[in-house]
Amino acid sequence: MDEVELPRVLAQLWGVEEGRSRPGPKPAFHISDIARAAVRLADAGGIGAVSMSKVAAELGFTTMSLYRYIDAKDDLYVVMIEHAFGLPPELPPEQDWRARITLWAEAFRDGLRAHPWVLHIPVHEPPLSPNQLAWLESALHAFDGTPLTPQDRLSAMLLVNIYVRGTTQLTANMATDPDEAREADRRYAERLTLLATPDRFPGIAGAFGQQPPDETDEFSFGLDTVLDGIQARIDRIR
């Protein structure tokens, strides 16, 4: 069997590049240093604030020095996501599958909220870095004890993943300060009441005529509905 060739960034993240020699001086820092610097920039100014030159300046080195570690900006995104998310949460084996995948989904949501710039990074291929594979493995094991096949588990995980990313994307650009968020909700309710009258938009008027729902409750409602669908599939298999 032919040897599998890994991109240099993955070889470094997996620690399998030690035996490979590259010309030039000895590396002055580790790829994790690059990740931390880039994440700091993104957390402060969004993904648009991240460039090879700015990351190099953050580290006190020249832009060319980064190319001893990173071949392209897409590789920089890989190490940023790897560092930003870290390892997945511990999923208690004594809990049922629903409680475990809920814990996983909430941790994933919290990671996206802490680093919303992740949502603006294009997804070109499935994850291959160590921490990202750990998140995938964790989600698959959340379904232990169910009759779902390995492919079913993967599809269920993707469904939860898409739900979490989608709901977080919708709220990522909204006000995060509690007072600002409440004021925004109040203004929206007033304007909606004026424009969406019950005679013309009865569905909207009925749905929004009450107190605006809590964001956490909305997330839980949607997630529970997704999990209800997975439970229905489990029941059909049984």
TrEMBL record:
InterPro entries hit by this protein: Homeodomain-like_sf, HTH-type_TetR-like_transc_reg, HTH_TetR, Repressor_TetR_C, Tet_transcr_reg_TetR-rel_C_sf
Range of residues in the leader sequence: none
Keyword annotations from UniProtKB, A to Z: DNA-binding, Transcription, Transcription regulation
DNA-binding feature ranges: 51-70
Domain HTH tetR-type positions: 28-88
Xref: PROSITE patterns: HTH_TETR_2
Pfam family, one: TetR_C_1
Name recorded for this polypeptide: TetR/AcrR family transcriptional regulator
